[in-house]
Amino acid sequence: MKWPFQGKWIAAGFGLTLLFMGLVIFASFNSTNEIKQGANQVQDTYQTLNTLTNFSAAMTSAESARRGYIFLGNRQDLQRYQNEVINMQSELRLLKRQIHPTSSIQQQRVAQLNLLVNQRLALLEQSIQLYQKDKTALQTQTDITDRSIQLRGEIMAAIANITVEEKRYLQSSLEQSQYNINLRILIEILGTCLSIVVIFILGIILERQWIKREQIESLKSSLAQEKKLGELKVHLFSMISHEFRTPLSVILLSSQLLKEILTELVDEKQLKNLYRIQSSAKLMNHLLTDILTLTRAEAGKLDYKPHLINIENFCLNLVEDLQLFGITPYPIEFLNNGKCFRANIDEKLLYSILSNLLLNAIKYSTDTEKIYLILNSEPEAILFQVIDKGIGIPRGEQPKIYEPFYRCQNVENIVGTGLGLAVVKKCVERHQGEIIVESDVGVGTTFTVKIPHINVLK
């Protein structure tokens, strides 16, 4: 049976349409695989970065517990230190499995990181053993601490290198995937144009809808996981904060009672250790508050409850409270240059802002230079200024000072966590305010906080 001429053209056109449709389907299938592979790479990189973050947090907590045990002799701190060391080692093992197996450079970096961590853990263990044998070996403890801080810097640098390489690998993979996807999309367009315009339009619409649906579902899943993780972090840090604040309150209350009893019985110089206990407990409580505030801010659950307060009295009480953070009072002077006395502000967030700025000024200044807290007012905002004559902040590093855990290169051996200014930034943003820094190395630093007020009473 011979096919008519039209039938041959129909059959040829139908066969050609099926061929191009097959090419389109094949290209679409490969494009979907590329998208899935890109999503998997994003997830793998996210897990690796999360592991690095957890490792850094465990390392910071271990160091904090080690110091708490050495300075306070608290067995709970020793147990917490041992638990955090186990967490660090667990995160390192997880990191080795997560690193891309074809990247020899990353494997070498992880090995170097593991070596540095082992060296630092050995130093910390040596410090604890030294404390258990001889609690008076302060110089040796200081040397160990200095070396530990140096190793920490090397560890953080190694972590930063690993993070950069992971992001670079992810970017390279995504670019290659994007190129392959674009190439296959071109094939789809050409194939569809050569077959039937209607099939081309319908196929593109269906494909785009499918991809968009996959992306929406992936985004929903990622947002749900991120929200759940944020809630878990807030709950965890809230529980830890509560568990720590109870014994800290007992320590403060007991030390205050001892002070009242011993004030008339012993010389003032003999009360220095008691003052150190009170100061360390208050600083630890302040650190817990900063960590909890930062965690809630990152999870989008930082409470904002403004109410009418007397700002001048608040600043005076804050300055008086901070005088107790050292063995001798620090020279903090409060000046009210404005006409604003009361305003609707969240008192807790304002306390976190000003106390962190003042504590930083105290930490990076000598006890011979005055530190100023100045209150000003503008028609649309309240201004707080904290001025010191300390070591200053290098201009090149000023844009980075609000990043969590970031510390400038000129802090030398001054102990700190790098959380204070990150907390200040979050609290100011919660007030829809603005923070400005002016600083020169060796001259001093001025932080200006502008908070728009809803209702100010003069």
TrEMBL record:
One of its GO terms (molecular function) is phosphorelay sensor kinase activity. Gene3D superfamilies: 1.10.287.130, Histidine kinase-like ATPase, C-terminal domain. It comes from Amazonocrinis nigriterrae CENA67. SUPFAM superfamilies: ATPase domain of HSP90 chaperone/DNA topoisomerase II/histidine kinase, Homodimeric domain of signal transducing histidine kinase. The keyword Coiled coil applies. It catalyses: ATP + protein L-histidine = ADP + protein N-phospho-L-histidine. It comes from the Bacteria. Its EC number is 2.7.13.3. This is histidine kinase. Pfam families: CHASE3 (PF05227), HATPase_c (PF02518), HisKA (PF00512). Photoreceptor which exists in two forms that are reversibly interconvertible by light: the R form that absorbs maximally in the red region of the spectrum and the FR form that absorbs maximally in the far-red region. Residues 78-141 form a coiled coil. CDD domains: HATPase, HisKA, HK9-like_sensor. PANTHER family: SENSOR HISTIDINE KINASE RCSC, TWO-COMPONENT HISTIDINE KINASE. Keywords: Coiled coil, Kinase, Membrane, Phosphoprotein, Transferase, Transmembrane, Transmembrane helix, Two-component regulatory system. The chain crosses the membrane at residues 9-29, 185-206.
